[in-house]
Amino acid sequence: MSDDLAFEPEIVLRSLNDHGVRYVLIGGYAAVLHGSPTVTLEGDICAAQGKENLEQLARALRAVHARIRTATDPEGIAASLDGELLSKMTMMNFVTDGGAFDLTFTPAAFPSGYDGFAEHAVSYDIDGLIVP
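Above: the chain's sequence. Below: its structure in token form.
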């Protein structure tokens, strides 16, 4: 992945927060917040799957001009993002105004998805942005 697609958390996560999305930051970027020396260029989130949350998530994604990222089109493919589409997915890769990030609803190690993460999540302050 090119550096110009590097994850800028304040853009994507602020949109999620501003739209009231229930999510937890997971993966490499979360590990960095916990002190890992690993460098990562993308973010990963796990979101709740309820209908209202999916609609809020779709609005947040549209606000940062999310496009579906694929191996053949790393700059992203435009898609009509809405709660109904998101409800049919288990994972999606995006590129946004804030770089690349992955969305998953049921990570391999946490089949309970968002609920499994949320009960153990801690909040971090990233330059005034509170992130679970």
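Strands lie at 23-26, 43-47, 67-68, 91-96, 99-104, 124-126, 129-131.
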